[in-house]
Design a protein that fits this description.
290 residues, alpha/beta, Rossmann fold, two-stranded parallel sheet, globular, binds NADP nicotinamide-adenine-dinucleotide phosphate
């Protein structure tokens, strides 16, 4: 059986979904480093990752570890750069000299949002925030090194089990206050971590390489997403649309960042399902307590 090493697999939103998807595929041996096992900020990171790789001998490393606090990155650029640029750069070096594939995750925030049709993998990135810039630098570090068999998967607006996320936050606000004020002038691609994880495993199995976009089908504003979650959960709550200007943010965010998955679909024959369907499954599982 091929072996997978999942960075971020213990506590990460996507990392946990990847562990689950790999285990339930039944065709992978799966490992994730314990929290604290790797010091991502150490000057000997390359040596640590090399030793881990040589010890486990994975066939594929899934890198779902990242600095994902978009607001926090504006004030902690060094930390964001260490996780989002230096870590993938190190991983590229590690896999370059070994027979290991690298599947790395990136973001819709590499785009500036000035388009009004879905972003393809051929569109030029132009990030607006520290988070977006550090994630783009991570992509470039991998591409420059171009380890044989790397894939970079850009995704967006993720919700899923095992970690606090936008849907949980909105439902908590609704239960506590009976009203949620949510931005309607940012449009993106809501994505269920479990669906993304399954598609990423498929991509790894088919040895896809280069840049891919993987998100659920369709598009929404944050307000649409909140309203759908409230409807499905039958919570008594008014969802009030507000503008981005009414919710000041340190980081500039793309107004439009819908991703076009056609390169993924052409490679795998799979089309991610529509986000409302994925959202309903997520809420059903959350409510069932399974
Ligand atoms: N969430 C979204 O909406 C979204 C949207 C677009 C793209 N993405 C991309 O998708 C990928 C996964 O995102 P996610 O939301 O699943 O991330 P997440 O839940 O924030 O998890 C990131 C993981 O990175 C590790 N990590 C982060 N900072 C660390 C530190 N200082 N020291 C040690 N470990 C640290 C942790 O791994 P352990 O589990 O090992 O503790 C953590 O669980 C990222 O590349 C992100 O840029 C996410």
């Amino acid at each position: 059986m091929p072996k997978a090493l999942v960075l971020g697999g213990r506590n990460g939103l996507l990392g946990q979904a990847l562990m689950e998807a790999l285990k339930s595929a039944g065709t992978w041996e799966v490992a994730a480093p314990d929290p604290g096992r790797i010091n991502y900020f150490s000057s000997s990171l390359h040596a640590e990752l090399s030793a881990l790789t040589d010890g486990l001998e994975p066939d594929c490393i899934f890198n779902a570890a990242a600095y994902t606090d978009v607001e926090g990155a504006e004030e902690h650029e060094d930390e964001a750069a260490a996780m989002n640029r230096a870590l993938p750069a190190c991983l590229a070096r590690v896999v370059d000299s070994r027979p290991v594939r690298l599947i790395h995750f990136s973001t819709d925030f590499v785009f500036d949002g000035r388009k009004n049709t879905p972003y393809t993998t051929d569109d030029q990135p132009n990030p607006l925030s520290v988070y977006g810039r550090t994630k783009l630098a991570g992509e470039q570090a991998i591409q420059e090194r171009a380890p044989a068999g790397y894939a970079i998967i850009r995704t967006a607006w993720m919700f899923g089990r095992g970690k606090k996320n936008f849907i949980q936050s909105i439902l908590n606000i609704c239960r506590a206050q009976g009203e949620a004020r949510v931005v309607f002038d940012q449009i993106g691609s809501p994505t269920y971590a479990a669906d993304l994880a399954q598609h990423a495993v498929t991509l790894a199995e088919l040895e896809g390489s280069g840049i891919f976009h993987i998100v659920n089908s369709g598009q929404a504003s944050w307000c649409d997403l909140a309203a759908e979650a409230v409807n499905c959960s039958q919570v008594e709550c008014r969802v009030t649309p507000i503008t981005s200007a009414e919710r000041p943010s340190k980081a500039e965010r793309p107004a439009y960042s819908v991703l076009d998955c056609s390169r993924f679909t052409n490679m795998t024959g799979r089309t991610p399902r529509a986000w409302p369907q994925a959202l309903r499954e997520y809420l059903m599982l959350e409510n069932s307590g399974l």
